[in-house]
Specification:
Layout lengths: L7 H6 L4 H9 L22 H14 L14 E5 L7 H12 L4 E5 L4 E2 L2 E2 H4 L7 H5 L3 E5 L3 H16 L5 E6 L33
Parallel strand pairs: 1-2, 2-6, 5-6
Antiparallel strand pairs: 3-4
């Protein structure tokens, strides 16, 4: 597991003492906690943990820990990031490497449909899980308030990665907040396209 800075529940499920997490945020512990071999250090710099995770997953391939006939011998990586990180260069580079090398990594995109102070509709013209297809691996959107649905999708993606089929992306979204998973901005409120002197304005889709 390669976390960002909000995966406290995942840490506790994997046996990381909560006192270790508190010590890290208080600055009295540099992150040398128990179960570090399973749950890596929190990453505060947005998005760079996806590159770490992809590199680790490629290392698992080189070690022969993926795609064996015995599932018990297979390993995979899960990396967590938010909606805003999906637009970071590091994250997109991780997607490219993971797809190109068929790395056993699951990209778990979770957030509340906002990227810091920007709503998701300003960040992407399509739901974020659909971006995965452009990189060459499947993406699934799931209700983040349905713990069984999230577990089922995560189990499916991990099994796929362990079997050597490559990366997958899941994006749990919260429901019941009075917002739809993705909204198109009305033309009156949309940002104007960026213009450069001598270059015609174009609209591109990610």
């Amino acid at each position: 597991m390669f976390p960002s800075y909000r995966e406290h529940a995942v840490a506790m499920v994997l046996g990381v003492p909560f006192t270790n997490l508190l010590a890290l945020f208080r600055g009295s512990d540099g992150g040398d906690w128990q179960r570090l071999e399973t749950f890596k250090n929190y990453q505060i710099v947005i998005g760079c943990q996806t590159l770490h995770a992809t590199g680790y997953a490629m290392g698992l391939q080189l070690d022969g820990a993926v795609g064996n006939d015995n599932d018990a011998e297979n390993s995979a990586v899960v990396v967590y990031h938010g909606d805003g990180a999906a637009s970071q260069g590091d994250v997109n580079e991780a997607y490219v490497f993971a797809a190109s090398y068929n790395a056993p990594v699951v990209f778990f995109c979770q957030n509340n449909q906002w990227a810091i102070s920007e709503p998701i509709a300003l960040q992407s013209r399509i739901p974020l899980f659909e971006r995965a297809r452009g990189f060459g691996f499947p993406g699934v959107q799931v209700d983040g308030n349905d713990v069984l649905a999230v577990k089922a999708v995560t189990d499916w993606a991990l099994q796929r990665a362990r079997s050597g089929e490559g990366p997958a992306s899941s994006r749990p979204i919260p429901t019941g907040w009075g917002r739809t998973p993705h909204r198109t901005i009305p033309p009156s409120t949309a940002r104007p396209p960026m213009r450069r002197p001598g270059v015609a304005a174009t609209r591109s889709c990610a």
